[in-house]
Amino acid sequence: MRPLRGQLLLEAWERGAAGSALTRPLALLEAASPGLRGEDWPDLSMAERDQNLFRLRQITFGDGLRGVLPCEACSTRMEFEISVDSILHRGELRHEAVWSSGAFTFVLRAVTTRDLAEAVAAPDPRRRLLELCMIVDGVETPKAVADHEEAAVAEFNRLNAGAETRFTLPCPACREVTHADLDIGKFLWVEVRHAALTLLREVHDLASAYGWAERDILGMNGARRSMYLEMVRA
């Protein structure tokens, strides 16, 4: 996996901009991992997908993940910072859950992006996700899902817990605690988009000042490009 910088950053942004909120995270991973087949990414579990996104974020923008959240009680803006490394070392990911009930043996696998894409259009997305991910005695059976939905939902939540990044923030103003869920796919896309637009503005400024081609500007290291920009903007 390579960090998203220069031309690769712009390629990742272009791929993501052409997709949906569900496919953008995979577009970023595809751009950063040219040696892997793009069609394999949708079949990663969401927890595995997110681990790869956190790794990509770490090598591209650093270990400190910073953001701002409003307090749920008084709307005060609260800053937070999380170490990506601490998230990556939360423990081993589970890929399936197996349990028995009566005469049936249930096997539930972790949900994937492909599953979400199919389930989102269903009348009951949660039920459809369970049907896609659960096998009963070697056969996919919607009726078994319906008959054992409560147990299946509990197992589903435990199995896919690795795809959730939750934390709490105490408000410095009112002392109330805000519970937050970090969606690394959305978070990283916002950072990539901002970095890509910043880079395009730098290319524009240097091309306008010196007449250089885009490929030459993007081929410079960041320190040299920044120095030229400093002189242009002085």
How many helical stretches?
Answer: 11
- Strand tally is 7
Low-confidence stretches: none
Q: What class do helices, strands and sheet pairing give?
A: alpha+beta
Mean pLDDT: 88
- Give, in spatial order, the strands making up the sheet with the most strands: 3-4-5
* Estimated helix fraction: 40-55%
End-to-end Cα distance, whole Å, is: 37 Å
Radius of gyration: 22 Å
Question: What about the largest sheet?
Answer: 3 strands, antiparallel
**SSE succession:** HHHEEHEEHHEHHEEHHH
Query: Strand content of the residues, in percent?
Result: 15-25%
Task: Tell me the overall shape.
Answer: globular
Description:
Helix 1 crosses helix 9 and helix 5 crosses helix 6. The chain has 11 helices and 7 strands. A hairpin with a 2-residue loop joins strand 3 and strand 4. The protein has a domain of 110 residues. By secondary structure, it is an alpha+beta fold. Helix content is 51%, strand content 17%. It starts with 5 loop residues before the first helix and ends with a helix.
Keywords:
234 residues; alpha+beta; three-stranded antiparallel β-sheet; two-stranded antiparallel sheet; globular
In short:
The chain has 234 residues and is of the alpha+beta class. The protein has helices spanning 6-17, 24-32, 46-61, 84-88, 113-119, 125-133, 142-147, 149-159, 184-210, 214-218, 222-233; strands at 64-70, 77-83, 96-101, 104-109, 134-136, 166-170, 177-181.
Per-chain topology:
Blueprint: H1 6-17, H2 24-32, H3 46-61, E1 64-70, E2 77-83, H4 84-88, E3 96-101, E4 104-109, H5 113-119, H6 125-133, E5 134-136, H7 142-147, H8 149-159, E6 166-170, E7 177-181, H9 184-210, H10 214-218, H11 222-233
Antiparallel strand pairs: 1-2, 3-4, 4-5, 6-7
Helix pairs in contact: 1-2, 1-9, 2-3, 5-6, 9-11
